[in-house]
Amino acid sequence: MDERQIKNVLEAALLAAGRPVSLDQLSALFGKRGAPSRDAIRSALATLTDDYADRGIELKRVASGYRIQIRRNMGDWLMPLWEERAPRYSRALLETLALVAYRQPITRGEIEEVRGVAVSTNIVRTLQERGWIRVVGHREVPGKPAMFGTTKEFLDYFGLTRLEDLPPLSEVRDLEGLIPELDFPQTLPQQDFVDGLSDAAEAEEEQAAEEEAGNGVSVADETPAAQVIPLQRPESA
Amino acid sequence: MDERQIKNVLEAALLAAGRPVSLDQLSALFGKRGAPSRDAIRSALATLTDDYADRGIELKRVASGYRIQIRRNMGDWLMPLWEERAPRYSRALLETLALVAYRQPITRGEIEEVRGVAVSTNIVRTLQERGWIRVVGHREVPGKPAMFGTTKEFLDYFGLTRLEDLPPLSEVRDLEGLIPELDFPQTLPQQDFVDGLSDAAEAEEEQAAEEEAGNGVSVADETPAAQVIPLQRPESA
Amino acid sequence: MESTDKPHLTLVPGMPPPITEGPGAPAQGEMPFALVEGEPVTELPRDLYIPPHALKVFLEAFEGPLDLLLYLIKRQNLNILDIPMAEISLQYTKYIELMQDMQFELAGEYLVMAATLTEIKSRMLLPRSEEAEEDEEDPRAELVRRLQEYERFKQAAEGINELERMDRDVHQASGEVVERKVVTKLPDVTLKEMLFALKAVLDRADMYAHLHVQREPLSVRERMSEILTRMQDKQFAEFSDLFSAEEGRMGVAVTFLAILELLKEALIDIVQSEAFGPIHVRAATASTQEPINQPS
């Protein structure tokens, strides 16, 4: 049995095990008669180490034996492999975001007043971590509550150049009427959005439907709204 | 980025994942800017296949992507590593699985019709738990029985890329001598397979497979194993 | 079991794998299909007689009546297309009787098959007119079709069993990942989703009117946030610094409205330390509330 063969068996064993294998265990693979000496095995392991020298894997000796591991410097490359998909945002979060956008600077208490329910710390934290809202000051009332405003990242994400590009509230109020202007798919009842928000599959279908329907027609959220929506400035009250 | 680097990333990713990784996922490792083309990735995978040619491991293409696996002929060597033997499956289970694979979508009643005996709930449950079959719909007959189909995991487990890779069903021997008026289909209609591939992703993979074949890129399963590893069988103790 | 005309029996489920080493091991290619009292049975009985102690194991090896019939046909090297019905149904019935004598838990399917065989046999024995013969198909046809169909899938099952199987024939290769950098892909939100959420909340609260949300254009709201942010960075800002000539008349107006609104909401203070001196803007603090010169 030549070294190449020994090396092949060792490599297969280490990769099959996916955990450290001791020299004894490696040696036991070859049976008794005609088994390579421990030195021969060590030498084959050394060659294997050299084989991996400029590769993304390495042969490492650890307490309980030898293992083949992914080199540390490969970590960044492999990140997409472990990518986890976060669950979709709740309706409460979207409502909070919308209120911050339209009513900034606004405190949590004021959001709660409009929504009629408490806004969880979690929602505020999620929106801050996402970089869409930030604390812009504190209101001078007891407790000095933080006031939130939207960020440039928020505008970038939604393809807006300025906050003003958001449709005025009067039009949000009458979203159905706004739909044609926004190139919203006509067939999509409003209910679908509100109720279906948690359903990722549905949302994907919607998106697919839009792409299909939109032969050259830009979808509202992908195009700077300024070009798409010929909105009038809201009348002052 | 030269091919050696691409190859190193791919190898590390496949070994790190410990499961099949699709071409899309492999492609995503390289980010967007300056990413190698799919052809470059396929070409690197082909080189990797060649690298492993006389080794104990091989790059295999299965339904859900590529995986690096220990070659079949290494099994005897590595036996001491496995603490438990792979489960044996009963003929009843394998026959049921065969019917689902070749005749999907198929109901339990239809399986029983061919096999001439009742299919135990246990078998169906085991196959579902293994993730090899799943309910793909219900037949519009009284009782609305579930129809079963095979999964990508089934293909992965048996080292197949698509259903067509299954060994062909034996042809029905000619009945003409006995009953000329009977018109038996000579071969299994191809639709049996094609219908089963309702999964769009699967269809895509197939296309990719075809493209790959067209590129003249050979992957492990196309290489005769005999040429590959000239290892002796381990001596019996 | 090398020739194909011998029965296609595989190992009885639950039996140990074939012994390939050690003394007394059967020669290569001769696989026991069952172990009876520890002794491997490598050959199927040539005729109906089966040692009683082996019968149960033997019969359990069949997957049903079709499987048993296929075995009977193959054992006698008969052409499946030309089954001698009388002989086959006799043999089949004898096995059924054996099973019943053994109190073998007999599936109903076996009895149904026995009845079918008897029926076919009787139909074949009955004389038929030429006309009838033309109309009727061979009574064996349906049985043959079922046997053939079953045989195909029996072979297909064997084919699947021989496929390179994960964890049995091949194994996933994996390297250890010492440190995993897990990233979470954040959910996507569309503008529409947000707008509909807003509409929902407004509809629900119906506080549209008294919120006076549309009192100021959004640009003023945005500017309010900007000014407040500047106040956070530095305690003071010079009033004139808040305006940018490049924004034009409209921009100046927006900034001015924003400052007024902030002032009204008591979010900023405006201070002027001396007449005609520079006006400073600062974040409001309850303790440092001072009289201010409010520009009008």
Please describe what this structure looks like.
The complex is a heterotrimer, with two copies of chain A (237 residues) and one copy of chain C (296 residues). In chain A, 48% of the residues lie in helices and 11% in strands. With 237 residues, chain A is mainly alpha-helical. Chain A folds into two domains: 68 residues, Orthogonal Bundle (Arc Repressor Mutant, subunit A); 122 residues, Orthogonal Bundle (Arc Repressor Mutant, subunit A). In chain A, strands 4-6-5 form a three-stranded antiparallel beta sheet. Chain A has a two-stranded antiparallel sheet with strand order 1-2. The N and C termini of chain A lie far apart (92 Å). Chain C is rod-shaped. Chain C has a three-stranded antiparallel beta sheet. Chain C has a two-stranded antiparallel sheet with strand order 1-2. Strand 2 of chain B pairs antiparallel with strand 3 of chain C, so a sheet runs across the interface.
Strand content of chain C: 5-15%
- Roughly how many Å apart are the termini of chain A? 92 Å
Shape of chain A: rod-shaped
Helical coverage of chain C, percent range: 40-55%
Order of strands across the main sheet of chain A: 4-6-5
Strand content of chain A: 5-15%
Alpha carbon gyration radius of chain A: 30 Å
List keywords for this structure.
heterotrimer; A: 237 residues; mainly alpha; Arc Repressor Mutant, subunit A; 2 domains; two-stranded antiparallel ribbon; 13 helices; rod-shaped; C: mainly alpha; 8% strand; disordered C terminus
